[in-house]
Amino acid sequence: MRRVAVVAPTPVSLFNLAIPEMLLGKVEIDGRPGYEVLICAPEPGPVPTTGGLDLYVRHGLDVVRDADTVLVAGAGELCTVDPRTEAALREAAAAGRRVASLCTGAFSLAQAGLLDGRRATTYWRHAEELRSRHPEIDLRGDVLYVQDGPVLTSSGYAAGIDLCLHIVRADYGAAVANEVARLALVAPVRPGGQTQFTQTPLPAERGTACADTRGWAMRNLDKPLTLTDLARHAGVSVRTLTRRFHAESGVSPLQWLLHQRVERAKELLETTALPMDQVARACGLGTADSLRGHLVRRTGLTPSAYRTQFSRLGTSAA
């Protein structure tokens, strides 16, 4: 079981604080919890929240020392970070721990010097403020989440869900992450480079215009789907499909399709003993060589190495 210390700044966002427990707390491996999630603060006791309530936090920052991952929740005010939190974050990073932030928690990591020279993100409304305070950061202000080595940052609100699912996927594989997403009734892991949807050319009531087509594509990933196929199913032109798809999902139809194919391949590698060429055909990647190329680019692992690391079958079928 992996320990996650969630640091609550002042005043803390209740939504941000709930995300790690909601997602990581649903992970079970062979009937046992995959994570122990502990909320902590520089001073145990009542911590103000952005909703005007006081949240009682039982743990101090001492739990950070034994954590595998330290995650800083977002704060309602972009104020100076408590020196004790800053020191705990530096100590965790120096010890090789994974350090992450949700929303404006990136300001805490930045003040601790953990984002210097790294790629990072935060909620788009505060991106310019973070850039002006810390110009040494390679800020990606329009993406959902970023991982740069052992340091992860996410943008605002629901992007914290994506970051936590990404952590689950990195620790336990795609099948476990997708199961957690199903249990929590949220979308499967989205690519971190997906945009933050700060603008959309579509009115809100049409925000799910391509939902049926995405569902249809997911059921037909084993087929060689093209833009024309997707547009025909949606009953629109390729140009209209591309515009609507990007407005709703933040990526092009083919980028989305490739992401889903690779995710399906990872799930098959984890949960079946199918040979590599059959895995490639089942997810629409064509050949074992194509599967290998896409998986290495996305994960740094060959299909055989990925299966060895994440297989739920107990044996490798590479």
TrEMBL record:
Residues 211-309 form the HTH araC/xylS-type domain. InterPro entries: Class_I_gatase-like, DJ-1/PfpI, Homeodomain-like_sf, HTH_AraC, INH-QAR. It comes from the Bacteria. Keywords: Transcription, Transcription regulation. PROSITE patterns: HTH_ARAC_FAMILY_2. Pfam families: DJ-1_PfpI, HTH_18. One of its GO terms (molecular function) is DNA-binding transcription factor activity. The keyword Transcription regulation applies. SUPFAM superfamilies: Class I glutamine amidotransferase-like, Homeodomain-like. Coiled coil: none annotated. This is HTH-type transcriptional regulator CdhR. It comes from Streptomyces griseorubiginosus. The lineage of its organism: Bacteria, Bacillati, Actinomycetota, Actinomycetes, Kitasatosporales. The gene is cdhR_11.
